[in-house]
Amino acid sequence: MIDVLVIGGGNAALCAALMAREAGASVLLLEAAPREWRGGNSQHTRNLRCMHDAPQDVLIEAYPEEEYWQDLLKVTGGLTDERLARLAIRASSSCRDWMRSHGVHFQPPLSGALHVARTNAFFMGGGKALVNAYFRSAEALGVQVRYNAPVDAIELDGERFVAARIGSERIAARSCVLAAGGFESNRAWLREAWGRNADGDWPADNFLIRGTRFNMGVLLKFMIEAGADAIGDPSQSHCVAIDARAPLYDGGICTRVDCVSLGVMLNRNAERFYDEGEDFWPKRYAIWGRLVAQQPGQIGYSIIDAKAMGRFMPPVFPGVRANTLPELARQLGLDDATFVRTIEQYNAACRVGTFDHTVLDDCHTEGIAPAKTHWARPIDTAPFFGYALRPGITFTYLGLKVNEHAAVHFGGKPSANLFVAGEMMAGNVLGKGYTAGVGMAIGTAFGRIAGTQAAAAALGRPSHDDIGEKQHATS
Q: How many CB atoms sit inside 10 A of residue 152's CB?
């Protein structure tokens, strides 16, 4: 019998498999996707948000625990478990050497992402390179890997794990780590979570899935129906406003359009609907998908002028370009009179001070709702550009409740040999909102905890209260 069964193939699953194997356990990892699509949403990531008290290799200055916590608290609106959040924050300060030992390399951020050089460590080659490095290391250490292996049921004895099932096949193990992702690719479940709008339409029908097509939530649904304690709102997710021309699945990070804070965002009625300059883009980009989802037809339009060009990471697809505002409106399919009136009202409300996109500057609007509190400059310099945006879901926040040992709970009682990591438990920390790189921080921290705990359970070793903190020390 295998010691530790890991279900999933992304960052959290791989961290768990590596930690369990390093602890001396035999490990089998089951990945639902074929080999060429392995890695779940982690293949689309590019960085890890890291706490640090002084400059470290690719990180500049300092990003102390309390600032990190306040950033997380702000974006979640308090919907977070502080103990678990701080555990992940502290773990982010000391995991990089362990990651390097398994073949992950880091690099300074590209010029378009210098605003996160203090807070985020970027993977050389992005998430795909990270996933590939982990798989190579896992296989070299003797972790068994099976692809095209979607688990659809778990056999339990009370709160204890007994076996996993793939159809009629039964796979027993002494302990198990669940890291199979959320349900963002399950259109029926998204419909159920979002319901119908006032017009009787299904908003979720207009969502794009910027992550993996294999996260159907089958295992998550099974566990909840089997009595595992759930946490989180099924309608909450990492939901970004992405280019409306993106593919239905696996568009990844390149579908993001990062110029929202440099211009205005309009809905289908050519009206503004939220403060585009509320805060720095890495702290606010993930609210815009949900905001657009609440607009008519689940579509929005980011409008900028020539002054904004060169100030944001260029998207893959060029924007619609025009020399006049009415021409731009017509190309975007918006009413040109309303469009021009909205832009002119915004321009008149701008109070331009010293524009600086790297700080919360004093360029703001007055006498208009919604206000734009920073980086407000008139849109008056041709050529003008527009990007049509739709909600792009990366991962959902509904998950399984855990403690600091990443144990799955049943009726408030933690399982002794069943653990969970990654998107399947991220809702413990992310009740709503997002800030760049925190998903990888959660997945890395709890993946490593889950793997350590699963190995201890399988090998009959004691589980110490402080293991969640100690195991993050440099290998």
A: 14
Question: pLDDT tens digit string along 76-123?
Answer: 999 999 999 999 999 999 999 999 999 999 998 876 666 788 999 999
Q: What is the CA radius of gyration of the chain?
A: 23
- Rounded CA-CA distance 353/159 in Å is 61
Phi, psi dihedral angles at 302 (to 5 degrees): -90, 125
- Give the list of residues 6+ apart from residue 7 with CB closer than 8 angstroms, or none: 13, 29, 30, 151, 164, 176, 177, 178, 179, 180, 219
Cα-based distances in Å from 323 to 320, 326, 345, 378: 11, 9, 19, 16
Spatial CA neighbour of 342 closest among 240, 292, 268: 268
- Are β-strands 47-49 and 27-30 bridged in parallel, bridged antiparallel, or unpaired? unpaired
Cα distances from 300 to residues 201, 216, 239, 254, in angstroms, run 17, 27, 14, 18
Per-residue pLDDT, averaged over 381-398, amounts to 97
Give the pLDDT score at 279.
93
What 3-state DSSP class applies to 122?
Answer: strand
Answer whether residue 73 shows pLDDT above 50.
yes
Spatial distance between the Cα atoms of 246 and 159, rounded to a whole number of angstroms: 42
25: nearest Cα among 138, 185, 155, 146: 138
Query: For the residues 314-341, what does the mean pLDDT come to?
Result: 96
Task: Give me 20's structure tokens.
Answer: 């369990």
| Residues forming beta bridges with residue 387, ordered by sequence position | 302
Q: What is the pLDDT of residues 128-185, one digit of tens each?
A: 999 999 999 999 999 999 999 999 999 999 999 999 999 999 999 999 999 999 999 9
How many residues in the chain?
475
CA distance 466 to 301: 49
Per the CB < 8 A criterion, the answer to whether 280 and 115 are in contact is: yes
397-426: average pLDDT: 98
Q: What are φ and ψ of residue 113, in 5° steps? A: -125, 25
406, 252 in Cβ contact below 8 A?
no
Domains delineated in the chain: 2-182+217-234+397-470 (3.50.50.60), 238-392 (3.90.700.10)
The whole-angstrom separation of Cα 8 and Cα 175 is 15
307 close to 363: Cβ distance less than 8 angstroms: no
**Would you report the helix, strand and coil content of the chain in percent, each value rounded to 5?**
35, 20, 40
Over residues 11-38, mean pLDDT: 98
